Amino acid sequence: MVVEGSKLKEKLIMEGTKIVQTEGMKHISLRRVAEICGVTHSSPYRHFANKNDYLKALVGQISIVFGSSIAKGITGDMKSEDILLKMGLNFVDFANNFPNYFDVLFLGDYIAHTKVKNNKLSADEYLPGFEEFKSIVQKVSSDNNISIEEDIEVVQLWSFIVGFALIVGKKDVVDVKSDWIKKVISQMIKTYIVGNQKE
């Protein structure tokens, strides 16, 4: 079956993300993905300028999976601290369920470039999960009268959850129960709020 146009581009991305999920980013080649899609090895180059362009598209798709994963189970009626806790738990679940995606987004060569300007943290690309996390951290600060610059508060909490997910996300190294994970994240949020509230 020959796939054409934008459908081929989507299929190339989807098949590539499947390879990343099961084998890791280092096993990606445009030739292999073209073969899986049933097209010539030159067909992907009609949609991507080069392999790096293709890998960037894969990272974008993986970012979307991450964004929807950490938003799972969050409702509009939840308190900001409860949303932050749920995001943290979802983040750890993402590290457990998608270890190769986690590696790509947080440990690999494809991490989006971020910068600080006027005490605001921003990325060169739209990163769904990160943007949601930033907005919740800002809401937690507002709801709890926290006086700290946005860039510092986001980096502090983001660093904690990425590091924590890295530690407990490796089930073959660390064996912990979900109640303990929830307790640690919850305690970190409480410590953060109490330690940074205006007097």
Automatic annotation (TrEMBL):
<feature type="DNA-binding region" description="H-T-H motif">
    <location>
        <begin position="29"/>
        <end position="48"/>
    </location>
</feature>
<feature type="domain" description="HTH tetR-type">
    <location>
        <begin position="6"/>
        <end position="66"/>
    </location>
</feature>
<dbReference type="GO" id="GO:0003677">
    <property type="term" value="F:DNA binding"/>
</dbReference>
<protein>
    <recommendedName>
        <fullName>HTH tetR-type domain-containing protein</fullName>
    </recommendedName>
</protein>
<keyword id="KW-0238">DNA-binding</keyword>
<dbReference type="InterPro" id="IPR009057">
    <property type="entry name" value="Homeodomain-like_sf"/>
</dbReference>
<dbReference type="InterPro" id="IPR001647">
    <property type="entry name" value="HTH_TetR"/>
</dbReference>
